[in-house]
Amino acid sequence: MHDFQYKEGTLHCEAVPLEKIAREVGTPFYCYSQHTLVRHYKVYEEAFKDVKSLVCFAVKSNSNIGVLHELVKAGAGCDIVSGGELFRALKAGCDPRKIVYAGVGKTEEEIEFALKSGVLMFNAESSQELFAIDVVAGRMGKKAGVALRVNPDVDPQTHPYISTGLKKNKFGISIDAAVEEYQLASKMKNLEIIGVHQHIGSQITQVRPFVDAVERLLAFVDKLRAVDIHIKYIDIGGGLGITYKDEAPPLPSELAKEIVPMLKKHDCTIIFEPGRNIVGNAGVLVTRVVYTKMNEGKTFYIVDAGMNDLVRPTLYQAHQAIQPIDQAAMGRTKLEVDVVGPICESGDFLAKDRVVPEFKKGELMAVMSAGAYGFTMASNYNSRRRVAEVLVMGDKYHTVRQRETWDDLIRGEKVAS
Ligand SMILES: *Cc1c(COP(=O)(O)O)cnc(C)c1O
């Protein structure tokens, strides 16, 4: 459930009509519901209350500091994958002791920044990275908390671009070779080996892959114990899917029912890194129909948002539901259309061959489930200004990111003199 519902004939976010925001902020814009966000976070807390747990929101899914701040206030930590995300997490007020840092290519500069900030742990992905963290920590006179990201070789049965836990993926260290890596790491003077990490993929809609992965991970933790390496944190990553169309992913509580009994046997703190599951259905992209046209019997709705604003449909062949803001339009004749942006690419679409009620020029449309991997993947391609982001709280809304200006487009540029 989310807080985007029709009231008095028009689509609202909580108690605010999206049409009002469109009038005042302009289109396109992303709109997030604070209530949905926080409720989704609380569902995790509740589901895993029988084990020591920490929910680290995956910042890459939505990194607006206004959004992060609401989750942080509710108690969340952050899962980051770059120095830039660390900067954002800290700006949003996140306690560095609740930050976990993953990513296959951490630079020395980023490692130094993370150590200076005092993050809880690095989720290291290779032996060279362990070595680099050890060197930087030594230079700074610090001890770095480290988990190794192991690759359990589980097929999450999702889109290949968002599968990350298979042998052929670039992520982590093969679970078979990992004991040896831990032994090497435990001899490094400036590292404190405190955890184990995995993240098998995204938009996972079944419990099975999680259960399989956790099973393998726990067997691995036992192997570590056998060689006298004792860890405190088991980080099982993110990846739980959401409903875009008719998927029926398990609820966090259903996932918990399966894996909490497994986890209870180990006296460790369990870390989760949900992104999409918390923020995906807490956001929509609102866009306006600029033109409608027919070509060779095919209908196109040309809207003011494009693939630079929301790339998921193009990049992952992702389905995002299209809804009129005006509820009365729902009753119109339905027809099959392409909803396309203004960008000079045939791949520039938000929906393809989609059956929607008829829209007219100038009308507003909501692209649903756009809160995760929406704005964070936006670009300035075609020199389009990135759109505004709005956070609704009850009957008020806050612009948590202004629409970019023309000047923003050329910031830092100059002609050679
Ligand atoms: C992307 C990512 C996540 C979040 O994935 P979701 O599918 O959005 O839950 C969590 N952990 C790591 C390491 C990631 O790379």
What does this structure look like?
There is one protein chain. The protein has about 425 residues and is an alpha/beta fold. Helix content is about 30%, strand content about 25%. The protein has two domains: about 5-30 and about 280-405, Lyase, Ornithine Decarboxylase, Chain A, domain 1 (Beta Barrel); about 35-275, TIM Barrel. It has helices at about 20-25, 35-45, 65-75, 85-90, 110-115, 125-140, 180-185, 210-225, 250-265, 275-280, 310-315, 405-410; strands at about 5, 10-15, 15, 30-35, 55-60, 75-80, 100, 120-125, 145-150, 175, 190-195, 235, 270, 285-295, 300-305, 320-325, 335-340, 350-355, 365, 390-395, 395-400. Strands 4, 14, 15, 16, 17, 18, 19, 20 and 21 form a nine-stranded mixed beta sheet that branches. It has an eight-stranded parallel β-barrel with strand order 5-6-7-8-9-11-12-13, surrounded by five helices. A three-stranded antiparallel beta sheet has the order 1-2-3. A hairpin with a 2-residue loop joins strand 14 and strand 15 (about 300-305). The longest helix is centred in the middle third of the chain and has 19 residues, at about 210-225. The chain starts with a strand and ends in an 8-residue tail after the last helix. The mean pLDDT is about 95. Pyridoxal-5'-phosphate binds near residues 58, 60, 79 and 102.
